[in-house]
Structure formats: C-alpha cells, structure tokens
Amino acid sequence: MGDSKVECNSWVSIADTQASKTASPVPVNGKQLMDVKLGELPSWILMRNFTLKGIAGAFQRGHCGYYKYELDHERFHQYH
C-alpha cells in the first residue's frame, strides 16, 4: 500500500517537471505567431492591438514585408 503512494507521488513529480520544462521564459505578448504554442493561442490573440491604428500597422507591416520579399527575389533572379 505504501508503494502505490510512492508511485502516485512520483508520477505527479514527473508531470510537474515536464510542465516546468515546457514553460516559456518569453511572455506571450512578446512572441510571434509561429512561436506561440497551441495552449497559449487564446491569450496571445487577446493581447493583440485591435484598435484602428493597430490593425492599420499590421497591414502596413505585411504589405512592406511582402514587397521587400518580392524585391529581394527579383534582384536575386536578375543576377543568377
């Protein structure tokens, strides 16, 4: 009977150590979407800036990033 308590406690300690290994040192609001774990996704979404200025900034970053990507590939293919 004493052995079953030891086994139960050892399972709890294993689960605790695995949870502490998966804990992220970076706060959720400082992560990019690809770095967010599935369980952190709802809190990550709620920390986004949903004001008009925030949404416009997100579109501007996406637009500028896309054209920077296109220009880099155009320059690469021009010389290769």
UniProtKB/TrEMBL annotation:
<keyword id="KW-0375">Hydrogen ion transport</keyword>
<keyword id="KW-0597">Phosphoprotein</keyword>
<dbReference type="GO" id="GO:0005743">
    <property type="term" value="C:mitochondrial inner membrane"/>
</dbReference>
<dbReference type="Pfam" id="PF10206">
    <property type="entry name" value="WRW"/>
</dbReference>
<keyword id="KW-0472">Membrane</keyword>
<keyword id="KW-0813">Transport</keyword>
<comment type="function">
    <text>Subunit f, of the mitochondrial membrane ATP synthase complex (F(1)F(0) ATP synthase or Complex V) that produces ATP from ADP in the presence of a proton gradient across the membrane which is generated by electron transport complexes of the respiratory chain. ATP synthase complex consist of a soluble F(1) head domain - the catalytic core - and a membrane F(1) domain - the membrane proton channel. These two domains are linked by a central stalk rotating inside the F(1) region and a stationary peripheral stalk.</text>
</comment>
<dbReference type="InterPro" id="IPR019344">
    <property type="entry name" value="F1F0-ATPsyn_F_prd"/>
</dbReference>
<keyword id="KW-0066">ATP synthesis</keyword>
<dbReference type="GO" id="GO:0046933">
    <property type="term" value="F:proton-transporting ATP synthase activity, rotational mechanism"/>
</dbReference>
<comment type="similarity">
    <text>Belongs to the ATPase F chain family.</text>
</comment>
<keyword id="KW-0999">Mitochondrion inner membrane</keyword>
<keyword id="KW-0496">Mitochondrion</keyword>
<keyword id="KW-0406">Ion transport</keyword>
<comment type="subunit">
    <text>Component of the ATP synthase complex composed at least of ATP5F1A/subunit alpha, ATP5F1B/subunit beta, ATP5MC1/subunit c (homooctomer), MT-ATP6/subunit a, MT-ATP8/subunit 8, ATP5ME/subunit e, ATP5MF/subunit f, ATP5MG/subunit g, ATP5MK/subunit k, ATP5MJ/subunit j, ATP5F1C/subunit gamma, ATP5F1D/subunit delta, ATP5F1E/subunit epsilon, ATP5PF/subunit F6, ATP5PB/subunit b, ATP5PD/subunit d, ATP5PO/subunit OSCP.</text>
</comment>
<dbReference type="GO" id="GO:0042776">
    <property type="term" value="P:proton motive force-driven mitochondrial ATP synthesis"/>
</dbReference>
<keyword id="KW-1133">Transmembrane helix</keyword>
<keyword id="KW-0007">Acetylation</keyword>
<protein>
    <recommendedName>
        <fullName>ATP synthase F(0) complex subunit f, mitochondrial</fullName>
    </recommendedName>
</protein>
<keyword id="KW-0812">Transmembrane</keyword>
<keyword id="KW-0138">CF(0)</keyword>
<dbReference type="GO" id="GO:0045259">
    <property type="term" value="C:proton-transporting ATP synthase complex"/>
</dbReference>
